TrEMBL record:
Residues 7-135 form the Glycosyltransferase 2-like domain. Pfam families: Glycos_transf_2. SUPFAM superfamilies: Nucleotide-diphospho-sugar transferases (SSF53448). One of its GO terms (molecular function) is hexosyltransferase activity. Belongs to the glycosyltransferase 2 family. The lineage of its organism: Bacteria, Bacillati, Bacillota, Bacilli, Bacillales. This is Glycosyl transferase family 2. The keyword Transferase applies. Signal peptide: none annotated.
Amino acid sequence: MDQPLVTVFIPLYNCEEYISEALESVINQTYSNIEVVIVDDGSTDNSVNIVNSYTDPRIRLIKNEINRGIPYTRNLGLEKSQGKYMAIMDSDDIAYLTRIEKQVNYMENNSNIDGIGTYYEIFGGRFKKVMRPKNITSEEIKAGLLFLNRIANPTSFLRLETINKYELRYNPEYFVAQDYDMWIQLSKVGELSILPEVLLKYRTGHTNVTKKSKSSKIIQRKKINDSIHRDILDFYNFDLTEVELRVFNEFFNDNYQSEISDSTLDHLPRLLTKMVEQNRHNKLFKEELFSEIIRDTVLVVLNRRKINLSRKLRVYNEVCKVKSVRSITRDLSYMVPKHIYNFLLL
């Protein structure tokens, strides 16, 4: 079998400080049968000159004459890709040198899988941390996508035959969370997985477009996330009232600095009970798995939100109780120091 050609796609915008390190990590991969498609979205710094200084023939630079935004840029990357697979990476991140080789091998050996992510290391801020998502099978990821994004976009590896067959594209109206929406659209027609190895270093601690969008466009960001949630809930035929949908969207909101009302916390256990019952009736996901996904996701959100500790513990216990899932001592023992840690960082 011929080695499959892999397109490594890197969207670029004003990243002169980091693009060389990112690019070096790609062109020095142990898997060499790649093309590197860099789409510059109207950079005004020295980023383009840095890319042009490389003579590697596998690099293709495409320039938007003006800043068109990340959805347009990602869709252009899909359009220009010539590979069997697309590996996505941000211009400020660093790929482990075996990343492409291991992702190619995984996809070649699992022809039923259409998109994967990996574990990854967060660096660049005050602390380093390795992120190892608990839910890595297709059913786990699909169930989890109902609530939050489950795959880190810079670790993405996509089977382009599936993407093109179903004409999947990033929503041009979504200036944020377009990757979350793409995973959901792909989950409707294909299978997903996470390769349980750390294969990327994800940079934080510097100013970027995502951070700016969180601070300046919070209302619009929430509307986009609400729209994504409504789409996937409708796809699986979860029948929620407008009040229940408001509770769902307020709690499972990725802006963790926002407040959660007492009313939402009061209604949450009843809402999730209803979803468990509808899941059972519609035979969507395995019952035990769905309950565990809910418990784990609620725990993650509670740990990240500004909520009184006693309130967190009460809500978590109520969710576990109504789900017929026993509160796990380990989870509760983690929640308390996590709450104290977050409080000290404020």
